[in-house]
């Protein structure tokens, strides 16, 4: 697959998802970048902003096996990864695989379940494998987690710890649509009842596993110049010395930013990364990897504002 083919694939994915989800082209692009660079995505937005429909449409477009977990306070780790259950017919233990054995997993309202269950996803997200009864079970090479969380509720939720947040490549803020977009949503779905389904909007499969593997291989051919590497490192290191940040981003964030920038360049049909690729990805990639200082929280500062400030301060290569 050529880089021009990758660009065309990205445009086709966006066109298909847009049939069901109005006004979220930016989120669709970042989902595609995450998939091509082997990352996971956290979607944060108020109820009713099409987070679940976005994940469903994205999976349908690419022909990925899709699984969903509705997180609740009583969910246990075995409900996610599976367990060995005794089979009375054979008098032996038999492995029952959990919903994590899929290609795209929607972890709905991930902050509604306790940390013990949240942690069950850590090994799966990092290693693309899970351990059940001491045996390692491999997951799909394309295993991707798209998690959602509701930011407006504070009771009965368990915020994700920083260690798990760092496993997500991007944290996307799903905002309310503008007036024109909301009118389009009402016109499309106002006559229906129940949850919308991608198939009802004509979302079709336009790729398969072989195409995704070829696209990922094409991304590996994108060049990352020494000047761009220096810029990525300087930007990430700048988060560690900012007075409004108690903790900055880790070296893993720098590597992830470089990998995502290569995928973004490929989706534009380029075989080289430019500073704008890094700048456009810096906020969704760093906003959940930095921790505000107590004084910054009191003053109402936002991580996005600080990252934007650093983008302006750190000199980009010419």
UniProtKB/TrEMBL annotation:
GO MF entries: ATP binding; ATP hydrolysis activity
Keyword Oxidoreductase carried by entry: no
Cited CDD domains: AAA
Domain AAA+ ATPase as annotated: residue spans: 37-178
* UniProt entry keywords in alphabetical sequence: ATP-binding, Nucleotide-binding
Cross-referenced SUPFAM superfamilies, in alphabetical order? P-loop containing nucleoside triphosphate hydrolases
Which Pfam families does the record cross-reference, listed alphabetically? AAA_3 (PF07726), AAA_lid_2 (PF17863)
Return the similarity comment. Answer: Belongs to the MoxR family.
Q: What is this protein called?
A: Magnesium chelatase
Q: Which organism is it from?
A: Sphingomonas turrisvirgatae
């Amino acid at each position: 697959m050529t880089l021009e083919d990758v660009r065309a694939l990205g445009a086709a994915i966006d066109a298909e998802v847009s049939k069901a989800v109005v006004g979220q082209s930016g989120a669709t692009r970042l989902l595609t970048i995450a998939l091509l660079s082997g990352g996971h995505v956290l979607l944060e937005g108020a109820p009713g902003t099409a987070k679940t429909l976005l994940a469903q449409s994205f999976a349908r477009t690419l022909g990925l096996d899709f699984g969903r977990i509705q997180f609740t306070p009583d969910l246990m780790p075995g409900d996610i990864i599976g367990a060995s259950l005794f089979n009375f017919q054979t008098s032996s233990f038999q492995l029952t695989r959990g919903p994590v054995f899929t290609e795209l997993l929607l972890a709905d309202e991930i902050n509604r379940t306790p940390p013990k269950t949240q942690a069950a996803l850590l090994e799966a997200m990092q290693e693309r494998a899970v351990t059940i009864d001491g045996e390692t079970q491999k997951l799909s090479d394309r295993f991707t987690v798209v998690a959602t969380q509701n930011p407006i509720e504070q009771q009965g939720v368990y915020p994700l710890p920083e260690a798990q947040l760092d496993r997500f490549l991007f944290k996307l803020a799903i905002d309310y649509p503008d007036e024109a977009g909301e009118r389009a949503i009402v016109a499309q779905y106002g006559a229906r009842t129940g949850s919308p389904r991608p198939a009802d909007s004509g979302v079709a499969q336009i790729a398969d596993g072989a195409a995704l593997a070829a696209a990922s291989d094409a991304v590996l051919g994108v060049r990352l110049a020494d000047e761009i590497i220096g810029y990525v490192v300087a930007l990430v290191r700048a988060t560690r010395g900012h007075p409004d940040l108690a903790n900055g981003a880790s070296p893993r964030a720098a590597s992830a930013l470089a990998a995502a920038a290569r995928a973004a360049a490929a989706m534009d049909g380029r075989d080289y990364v430019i500073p704008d690729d890094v700048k456009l990805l810096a906020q969704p990639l760093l906003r959940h990897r930095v921790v505000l200082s107590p004084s910054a929280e009191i003053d109402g500062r936002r991580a996005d504002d600080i990252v934007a400030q650093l983008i302006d301060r750190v000199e980009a290569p010419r």
